[in-house]
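One-letter codes give the sequence; each number marks local geometry. A record appears below:


***
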Amino acid sequence: MNRSVTTWLLLLCWLIGAMVVFGGWVRLTRSGLSMVEWHVVADAVPPLGQAAWEETFRQYQQTPEYQQINAGMTLDEYRAIYYREWGHRLLGRVIGLVFALPLVYFLWRGDLDRRHLPTLVGIGLLFASQALVGRFMVASGLVDQPHVSHYWLTFHLLCALLLLACCLWLRFGGEHLVSRETAPPPLRRLSLWLLGAVVLQISLGGLMAGLKAGYLSATFPLMFDALIPRGIWAPDLGLGNPLENPVTVHFQHRWFAFAVLGLALVLWRQRQLCGPRFQAALRTLLVLLALQVALGIAVLLTHMALSAALLHQALGLGVFAASLRVCYRAYRG
């Protein structure tokens, strides 16, 4: 794979990561429901003129978020949250063009290995489906409740992770390696379990964000003055507690992080069975995991401070990328 293609893939990875963090900022500032309508072309330009702004604001005033949370908001205040969501959607369009235009150029030049075409087509479909999922997610917050469905939000996040994974995997394949030695089968399976655990932890973070469960407790290790907090099991939710009870979701997310770190340490103890490239990738992952756990605690203690929460989200993407690289080294050498 030539240098231009690998640079393009790396740029896509950074842009997808920026899109996720930007989306987190939009969510944390309660700006995501400011654009009531969704148009592929028309939304690319914000309202032009006072009359257009007043009409757009009038549409927002019919939503549950305005009526239950932002009643009395001025037009200038509305513009601020509108531009955040508009910027988020605009960045999505830009990323789509950064994917599509160079892809056509590289195909025309013959710079792409034909074996990668199915993956690239899949990435294109994922970009389109990601926009569609975002549309359904926003729509879920415009009826009855003043917030989006935590299921749609988590699904939207997982689609972004899948996009990032596809681009990263191709990018890793563009590296020129001296050795093709793979890890022994037990370590390959363990690295795959570790990647799955990271994805599960990020999914719990998505549920936690959608349920706004991070605001429930600002103490650590105790939660509501206990290691196992009251309200962790709501009888009316039954088996839905792990997915729908904010207390349960918060408890799961804060402690499963240590399970992920423990699994990485188990893999580290067997690192001598693999080559130096695998060990280097695993070392990077361990450092990022330790930093992420410490930062997660800081987010709790600062009661979801915006800067800390966004850094936590960005570092989570770094952990995901590092765990994927460990898998790549285990399976591809």
In short: Residues 1-176 form one domain. The CA atoms of residues 10 and 260 lie 26 Å apart. The two ends are 17 Å apart (CA to CA).
